[in-house]
Amino acid sequence: MSDLQELTNEFMQDAEFKKEYEALQPERDITMSLIQARKEAGLTQEELSKKTGISQADISRLENGTRNPSLALLNRIAEAVNATLRIEFVPNKRVAK
Asked: How much of the chain, in percent, has pLDDT values that exceed 90?
């Protein structure tokens, strides 16, 4: 296990930290999906930039999670990587009573 994973596991014992960490999961999911889609399309950030008209710096910010994309921007990226954008609501797990 990596030092980062060990540290994360330690912090996850704190209820407030865990709540905030889990609240950011959708943003991490988008970031990871963007990176994965670009790589599966065999594109560099620069190549994706040329195909979408989005600056390479902004693509980097999207992939680093420092910029939140609009749906229109996500659709441009999806088209460039020959993919379909899908956003879904997943029910939370219910605790047995």
From this structure: 76
